[in-house]
Amino acid sequence: MTTRKIGAQGESFAAQILQKRGMEILLRNYYTPYGEIDLIVRDGGYIAFVEVKTRRAGSLVRPAEAVDRRKQKRIIQSAVYYLMEHPADLQPRFDVFEIVTEKGKIFSAQSYQYIINAYEVTNYESV
Predict the structure, then answer these.
(1) What are the backbone angles phi and psi of residue 78, rounded to the nearest 5°?
(2) Rounded Cα–Cα distance for residues 27 and 15 (Å)
(3) Dist CA 44 CA 22 (whole Å)
């Protein structure tokens, strides 16, 4: 299975879990000149920009560690772009949904973790 297919299945898995938690999926795979946001969800009074990271069991690093400062900056820029196009009276938040899959040819989640407020905009001097 290709990395792209695994990523798409991870995003679908994450969307299902978040919906079960009562969140509303506003958009999937939102593209901007700065990059892509995997999921944009409404969680009560928050609008969460969610990066989904999927890795196979035995990877050297946790999936969330792949969301480095450069990736965070692109997501923040994309979120600002989204909010300019779609103004909302919701507090923005940046979350990471990490998934570890079983080794093999089919998608099978071994574990997952939803990290709320995984990073903040205040860490960036020029967004």
Answers:
(1) -65, -35
(2) 10
(3) 9
DSSP annotation of 104 = S
Closest CA to 90 of 47, 122, 31: 47
Distance CA 83, CA 100 (A): 31
Q: Average pLDDT for residues 49-76, to the nearest whole number?
A: 89
Map residue 83 onto helix, strand or coil: helix
Mean pLDDT of the chain: 89
Does pLDDT of 65 surpass 60?
yes
Query: Which residue stretches of the chain are H helix?
Result: 3-20, 69-85
Amino acid at 114: Y
Structure confidence at residue 3 as a pLDDT band (50, 70, 90): confident
Q: Which residues contact 42 (CB under 8 A, 6 or more apart)?
A: 23, 24, 26, 48, 90
CB 103 within 8 A of CB 56: yes
